[in-house]
Automatic annotation (TrEMBL):
Is synthesized initially as an inactive proenzyme. Formation of the active enzyme involves a self-maturation process in which the active site pyruvoyl group is generated from an internal serine residue via an autocatalytic post-translational modification. Two non-identical subunits are generated from the proenzyme in this reaction, and the pyruvate is formed at the N-terminus of the alpha chain, which is derived from the carboxyl end of the proenzyme. The record marks 208-209 as: Cleavage (non-hydrolytic). The gene is psd. Belongs to the phosphatidylserine decarboxylase family. PSD-A subfamily. HAMAP family: PS_decarb_PSD_A (MF_00664). Its cofactor is pyruvate. It comes from Croceibacterium atlanticum. Catalyzes the formation of phosphatidylethanolamine (PtdEtn) from phosphatidylserine (PtdSer). Heterodimer of a large membrane-associated beta subunit and a small pyruvoyl-containing alpha subunit. This is Phosphatidylserine decarboxylase proenzyme. It is a peripheral membrane protein. GO terms for cellular component: plasma membrane.
């Protein structure tokens, strides 16, 4: 992945910078600014124009795309989304990711695995990132409903997109982008056959939703229910590591 190398020995540079606005969102923000200026300058409707201008600023903020420092360790699975861990459960992988595909690439199987669900509010960064490096072997889009993405059944009933990434060692890792009440479009930045790095941008979901990650057998989550996590930086799990982790809400 392109970027400056930094490590836990203090090597590299750290600086604060304004986050960029992803191109996918610039048009929406500019449309909002244009409408607000028309209302303010042509009609002098300040009671409407200023709230519209603030709303346009909120749209720009929603599509912000900050840089992330991604841990470079082949055994780590990093968070694909900013947000809150709302579910950690043992479930069978989605049917679309279970079996091998037409090219013989293996799926996740049908045995229950640990699923980590990350809920993104409208205040979170909505750029989704690859949980591991490897080859995108499968992208399956499924139309569906737009119920609250925080609900467990949203994984099976909402509009969603499954992505299967095969690591260089041949082990597949699956994740699912799920639309919610407000989110109405899942945007993909990658296609089948692309090679991605861990933490690379792979898509976004407009205006709040959820991302599920399916850990391989024999791997426990390193995050806790209710924990706030950061895409591309928070380590969700280490391959082959099983350990109960407890936390106290304070």
């Amino acid at each position: 992945m392109a970027g400056d190398l930094r490590d836990n020995r203090g090597r590299g540079d750290a600086e604060w910078r304004w986050p960029a606005i992803h191109p996918e969102g610039r048009k929406f923000g500019l449309i909002g600014v244009g409408i607000a200026l028309i209302v303010l300058l042509l009609f002098d409707w300040e009671i409407i124009g200023w709230p519209l201008l603030a709303l346009a600023g909120g749209v720009f903020a929603f599509f912000r795309d900050p840089e992330r420092v991604v841990p470079q360790d082949d055994d780590m699975i990093v968070a694909p989304a900013d947000g809150l861990v709302t579910l950690i459960s043992q479930v069978p992988p989605p049917l679309e990711l279970q079996g091998p595909d037409g090219d013989g690439a293996p799926g996740l199987g049908s045995d229950p695995v640990t699923r980590i669900s990350i809920f993104m509010s409208v205040f979170d960064v909505h750029i989704n990132r690859a949980p591991v490096g490897g080859t995108v072997k499968r992208i399956v889009y499924i139309p569906g409903r737009f119920m609250n993405a925080d609900l467990d059944k949203a994984s099976e009933e909402n509009e969603r997109q499954h992505i299967l990434i095969e690591r260089p060692d041949g082990r597949p890792i699956g994740c699912t982008q799920i639309a919610g009440l407000v989110a109405r479009r899942i945007v993909s930045f990658v296609k089948q056959g692309d090679i991605v790095a861990a933490g690379q941008r792979i898509g976004l979901i407009r205006f709040g939703s959820r991302v599920d990650v399916y850990l391989p057998q024999g791997t426990d989550a390193k995050v806790l229910l209710g924990q706030k996590i950061i895409a591309g930086e928070t380590v969700l799990a280490e391959l082959g590591k099983l350990k109960l982790i407890e936390g106290v809400s304070q």
